[in-house]
Amino acid sequence: MTTTAIRGGLVITAAEETRADVLVEDGKVAALAASGSAFAQGWHADRTLDATGKYVIPGGVDAHTHLDFPFGGTASSDDFETGTRAAAWGGTTTIVDFAVQSRGQALREGLDRWHAKAAGRCAVDYGFHMILSDVNESSLKEMDLLVAEGVTSFKLFMAYPGVFYSDDGQILRAMQRAAGNGGLIMMHAENGIAIDVLVEQALAAGHTDPRYHGEVRKALLEAEATHRAIQLARVAGSPLYVVHVSAEEAVAELAQARDKGLPVFGETCPQYLFLSTDNLAEPGFEGAKYVCSTPLRPREHQAALWRGLRTDDLQVVSTDHCPFCFSGQKELGRGDFSKIPNGLPGIENRMDLLHQAVVDGHITRRRWIEIACAAPARMFGLAPHKGTITPGGDADIVIYDPHAEQTLSASTHHMNVDYSAYEGKRVTGRVETVLSRGEVVIEQRKFTGRAGHGRYVPRATCQYLT
Fold first, then answer.
1. Is the pLDDT of residue 177 over 90?
2. What pLDDT sits at residue 2?
3. What is the separation, in whole angstroms, between the first and last Cα of the chain?
4. pLDDT at residue 291 tops 90
5. Interatomic CA distance for residues 314 and 304, integer angstroms
6. N or C: which end of the chain has fewer CB within 10 A?
7. Please, what is the average pLDDT of the chain?
8. Rounded distance between C-alpha atoms, residue 380 and residue 372, angstroms
9. Does the pLDDT at position 1 exceed 80?
10. Using one digit for the tens of pLDDT, what is the confidence trace for 403-440?
């Protein structure tokens, strides 16, 4: 058993801020005590980490990643080894990735495939959601079995006809099943049938540049799908979690549902808070770097997203990290925006960008920890072991320098992708040291972790519903 004392820092959780020392024993938080107190001074630790002038925060929980994910004839460029290493560099110590059920196959086959991709390769802890591509009697029954073994959330798509799309009847059946087994339905809410018509019309008119990706995926079609998903969930008596909310009108649908007391939750991502259609319209083919779905919106939508995060109409900020290299992958869509692989890199940038939001006055420090650590842990059945710093919880801890300045760039990031969505952006705040279950995986800006340290974590059901 090894012991580590983290001394002199400002401990920030979603619940409080306090000047405290933290004692770590055998991968768990053993105690917290006021810095300099007789109790803290009496600790005998094998090593001491000096956090004077720094924040001591929980490791981030990124509940929406796509590592080694097949899409559009290629696969995301980060695998479980490179992606979880980049997560650690960015202060994220737990991810929840998406296992995929292929059409005509069992959920179990998809889940086993993702377990094989991740086993022995992860630098930080990980869990899985399950993407339902084929809703039928067999897969509905399998949902019960997966919930029982710790895969407690299921993603459905109102977008991507012919690939992941489920119709309203299939969605209703899955929601009814989740209402009975305690699972949480996650929804990609865009009207894919209507969007495909607009894509076809745009291409026929010669509109092939990346910016048209944003123009055809209308904000109103995100709002309509969000509204429809909420009503289906009400009929089914099921909770609902809407992923990657990007549009002001969609936030309004969530707010209205929550005002009625419905168990409806929403997530947004850093790209919608910091990027916009201005990026999609960058000259040449540069806009392809910013193609993701839901798409980037005009800058005016950002105020509604920040407001939603402050009012708790949006509870979580995840990355939807799904990187494709510009060279050789994004380029598949030259001359046809609909063939550009959908996804952005960001697993390494989330905690820093959200700290910048604190600096800019959008959110408080405690809200930063809430939306990046505590809320995703509770939403997806990982609390209290993840998402906070509490005795008995996993020692997933970040020493964070709130004064360090850095410039985000592909030349310095650790994600396996040849561009940064935030190239040249100056931010204040930087991860200094990271512990994952008490093991130092980043020490003074050096990676000291290893593939295989990260463990698979079975999850409880959504803790906002108990």
1. yes
2. 87
3. 35
4. yes
5. 10
6. N
7. 97
8. 13
9. no
10. 999 999 999 999 999 999 999 999 999 999 999 999 99
More confident residue, 73 or 252: 252
Residue count of the chain, please give it: 466
Contact by Cβ (8 Å): 21, 33: yes
